Amino acid sequence: MYSQHTRRTFGSVARAISRGTGEVLITFGLIVLLFASYEVWGKSAIVDAHQDELNHQLEQQWAQQPTVGPSATPAAAKPPNGAVIASVHIPRLNKKWAIVQGVTPADIRYAPGHYPDTAMPGQIGNFSMAGHRTPAIWWDLDQLKPGDPVIVKTATTWYVYLVTGHQVVLPTAVQVVAPVPDKPGETPTKAMLTMTTCNPKYNNYQRLVVHAELGRSQPVSAGDPAELKG
Asked: Is 160 helix (H, G, I), strand (E, B) or coil?
């Protein structure tokens, strides 16, 4: 039989261990929470800095290209992955982003990426992009409503797409970026735009998909489109 003193000693040790374990778990929980917060919020400054650099590259690239009208949408060679190809502006979110070619994790680390096998801006088909669901990129993409403009700028042309709707699908639903969305194998007759991102926020077991249709275009030389002002 343990003496009363021994039982008190064991009890004190057990309480100390329990208290220490609890403090360790709380500390670990705070570290995990802080890391998660950094992953979601802390990287915004890093993404913004890379976006500034990509937009600077884009402006330099455009300055070296001849200015032609919107009818001259060339069937140019496919850009290499990682190359900056255009910018996308969403007035409802008061945001714009440089767009890069490619949708691998490396390509879209700091910018939305263009699915290489889909149409280019303004072309008949489905100009499709993927972007991370982070505050610096497509965090609020679910706020878009039918009729909202999504405006893509290239070296020569502004393309004003109008949102037609959105859907939530599984990551395997690749048909959403088909030339005719959700109708693989069908021949396209319209210029469409599709944006895909993770869903819900903080997770990636679904995809939020926003579709839009080209409403009109105008040359960059004509100035900013009215829709850009919201």
From this structure: strand
Sign of the alpha-carbon dihedral angle for 91, 92, 97, 100: negative
CB atoms within 10 A of CB 67: 12
As to burial, measured by CB atoms within 10 angstroms (0-12 exposed, 13-18 middle, 19+ buried), residue 146 is exposed
Q: In this structure, what is the dihedral angle of CA atoms 21, 22, 27, 33, given to the nearest 10 degrees?
A: 130
* Whole-angstrom distance, CA of residue 130 vs CA of residue 115: 7
DSSP designation for 146: T
Residue 71 has pLDDT above 80, yes or no: no
Structure tokens at 147: 């009729």
Q: Which amino acid is at 96?
A: K
Greater confidence (31 vs 114) lies with 114
Q: Please enumerate in sequence order all residues whose Cβ is within 8 A of that of 43, keeping only pairs 6 or more positions apart, or say none.
A: 134, 136
Give rounded-to-5 percent helix, strand, coil for the chain.
35, 25, 40
User: Are residues 41 and 201 in contact, defined by beta-carbon separation less than 8 angstroms?
Assistant: no
Angstrom CA distances, 134 to 40, 137, 144, 191, 200, stand at: 6, 5, 16, 28, 11
The answer, yes or no, to whether the previous bond of 171 is cis (omega within 30 of 0) is no
The pTM score is: 0.78
Q: Is the pLDDT of residue 75 over 60?
A: no
**What is the rounded CA–CA span in Å between residue 54 and residue 56?**
5
Q: DSSP 3-state assignment of 194?
A: strand
